[in-house]
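Quick check before the chapter quiz. The format below is the same one you will see on the exam, so make sure you can read both the input and the output lines.
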Amino acid sequence: MKSGIKTVEEIDTYELLKRYEQGEFSIKSLLRKLFPVNYLKELYKIIKKVKPDVIHSMHIQEAAFLTMEVKKMMCSSFPAWIVSNWGSEIDLFRFFPDQRKKIMEVLKNCDYYSGECVREIPIIKDLGFKGKIFAIIPNSGGVDFEYIKKFRSSGSISSRRIIMLKGYSNWAGRAITGLRALERCCDMLEGYKIVIYCVDSLDVKIAATYFTIKTGIETIILPFGTTHEEILNYHGNARISIGLSITDAISTSVLEAMAMGSFPIQSKTSCANDWFVEGKSGIMISPEDSEEVEKAIRIALTDDKLVEDAAEINYRILFEKLGKNKIKSLIIEAYKGALTKNGN
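Here is the expected output.
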């Protein structure tokens, strides 16, 4: 490549690599193209055969839109219907006219709503929801604090030398902004490693490699398929965990970081500030402003007392609110309530 200009061959190779990374050439993908599935028909058949007492749609667009079409086909014989919002459906897509119409149709027809953020409640009511709202809890469930102890390093938080970065770079994720911010404060990163997880694009892998070439700071990219325990272990050895997205709900990764003692720097689009204390046990920033992210990173790198105190505050908050048995009881109670719709 000369003068920074890509040849046709290089562009084609890059695009092919991206498509390969996204799984376009997998056996599964090819089978889907050869034998397309009529998901509406299949879901209708399953519901008719199983006759469930309750249907729970996990995600409005990816599950509830399809379920809504089946409900139209079944009319009054449809069971109690719970809909869970995973963040972007209400937070972002309600502003898109075509999506808003479908979201409103779902909310007007479902019986129960489960969400992660307090801010969603007035919004869903404005969109036409008239049913019952379950307790606001994370979609990921509760935390087994006894189990996660073994993944959290015993030393001080300020002595940790890992920075975690969530690697999504797509229509919502802004990992590249995070890498730019880290490059801007590379003067403070000697001895640190940047660990990037949930990487979903070749762009991030290239940007991370280039970051290391320019700064000399080591980056580790965790492959897809890395176990949950391994990711928890990295959070448990990290000083800072960064998550950037233009839309979100709580973000499971920020809760994991908090539980493992890592200082969370999270985009303002999340409702993570329902859980941590803004400015004291976490910092909220714009997901697309690398300068703002840089400032937050510098604060967390220089203020040892801040990160030590934050770890204690966050652990106490989560221990009180997110204990496994407490959340389990809330979920069981919610399902029991849903069963009463059909007289069970």
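If your answer matched, good. Residues 1-11 have pLDDT under 50 and may be disordered.
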